[in-house]
Model the fold of this input.
Amino acid sequence: MIEVFVAIGSNLGNPVAQAREAIAALATLPESELLQTSHLYGSRPMGPADQPDYVNAVARLHTRLGPLALLDELQRIELAQGRVRKDERWGPRTLDLDLLLYGDLVINTERLIVPHYGMKEREFVLLPLAEIAPSLVLPCGTPLTELVARCPRNGLEILAGAAGE
Ligand SMILES: Nc1ncnc2c1ncn2[C@@H]1O[C@H](COP(=O)(O)OP(=O)(O)OP(=O)(O)O)[C@@H](O)[C@H]1O
Ligand SMILES: Nc1nc2c(c(=O)[nH]1)N=C(CO)CN2
Done:
């Protein structure tokens, strides 16, 4: 089993419910086990400011799926939750699932870049990730704590538990 981390983001159509639905879907992935989920965080939009705030979280799984098979599954969940692909960069969406880390693998293909190219600068990824994996070291050798220490919070706040508690 490979340890993987998946980022969850939503800012349309009841984002808290979308995030929880996505977590429930991750728990049913084939050849995989959902191990842990961060709290749900409220975050200010990165990109165009004229869009609702986001709900973000990070999940930790074990999987036997290969990286592309896992990406297929993540995109299937996005579509099942009404994701419509638009041209606007960083525009609003019902659900975004990004593969942050796939064990220590480094992947640079047209369809998949791992570690996710934006994760080192995004407070809405780093803080939830640090909540569930505080001693994580990235494949490049950088400790997560170092990235968290230099990352502005931009108003990021814990909103709720992942399961509605
Ligand atoms: N690590 C990754 N996780 C998810 N998708 C990825 C990854 N690396 C590359 N991609 C590719 O990125 C494409 C576009 O993804 P998407 O539209 O969700 O981008 P975005 O969420 O708007 O922006 P960003 O990638 O900056 O978060 C996907 O079709 C997928 O093939
Ligand atoms: N706060 C926040 N902003 C975003 C997010 C996100 O998940 N959280 N996702 C985006 C598209 O990838 C664009 N902007």
